[in-house]
Amino acid sequence: MIEQTAKLPECCVVYTTDPKYLFPTLVSAMQARFHASRSKADVIICCFGLDEETERIFAPICRQEQIGLQPVDSSLIENQTSMLARLFLNRFVPQQYTQYLYLDGDVHILDSIDPLIDAAVPDGQFLAANDPMTFLLADSSPQSRDLSRHLLSIGLTHEQSLRYFNSGVLRINRVGWDETGSAAWEQFRSSAQGNRFPDQDALNIVSVNKRLPLSLAWNYPVFMSNSRVESRIRPRIKHFMSSPKPWNGAFPPWTQEECIPYRDALTRHPSLEPFNIRMSVRSRMAYHFQQHGKRLVEKVTWGWSQRRTRILHYEANCNRSSIILAKP
Q1: Counting C-beta atoms within 10 Å of the first and last residue's C-beta, which end of the chain has fewer, N or C?
Q2: Cα–Cα distance for residue pair 316/197, rounded to 1 Å
Q3: Could you read off the pLDDT of 7-24 as tens digits, one per residue?
Q4: Please, how many CA atoms are within 13 Å of residue 224, restricted to the half-sphere of its CB?
Q5: What does DSSP assign to residue 327?
Q6: How is domain 11-231+302-321 classified at the CATH fold level?
Q7: pLDDT tens for residues 147-198?
């Protein structure tokens, strides 16, 4: 009798980080491992500048959590920071994987990501959700005009600006990513000083027409909790796009619930405590004050304005036009 061997997954959920942010990245990867079928995808963390002591602590924990920890030499990303690593995935992600789900380390995964893993992404293309800034472009505010000028200044037309995507969640077909990443790297090198969001701007400039729209359910900006859209979108992946982060504490609009995964990880693996990113009391107080103020402003400017209408219109278009991804 011939023994059947299990087929290796063709997709991997991949994170890129450095030792400083390895702890919160690991927590997100643990969520990814829990919410992704093992037969469909592996989960790996690619860490740049990983020193021996940090690897000694994290490697056995990652094995226990069934997460791959892969040290990567920074020369493979042109000696840049790990922020740029998504442009070079084909250089260091193992060849067995033909599909990637790239995730930033500051995302929380709340439900099964199997539908995103299963998405049939054509060669040379990728899935990404609109960046939240696109929903304020039609405003007449100074912020909107400033943003419009910036996007036009980097070479995007008005129509392309409305499709500007966030690069924190990318469902990628490996075929063609070399070309996309290389073009974005060259764009970054030539104009990084003029780009407000350097790597994300570069990706949009070279590949906005290769990108397929993705529901915000798979890359939900946490501040949109003030926009009265969460119950309609039903997010599976929440993205903490700006400071503070949930590992810093419970800051509006999120609560203690978002801090629990980090506390649980420290309880489960006490050796991670030295890698817990702490915030000074002074900074904590300043952020609490700031976030309460932002929450009040966002409830008006996002939750009771045309921005909310634009968000829901984008979602409706995603659900109507997508033939490669089931509705969450």
Answers
A1: N
A2: 27
A3: 789 999 999 999 999 999
A4: 28
A5: -
A6: Spore Coat Polysaccharide Biosynthesis Protein SpsA; Chain A (3.90.550)
A7: 999 999 999 999 999 999 999 999 999 999 999 999 999 999 988 566 678 8
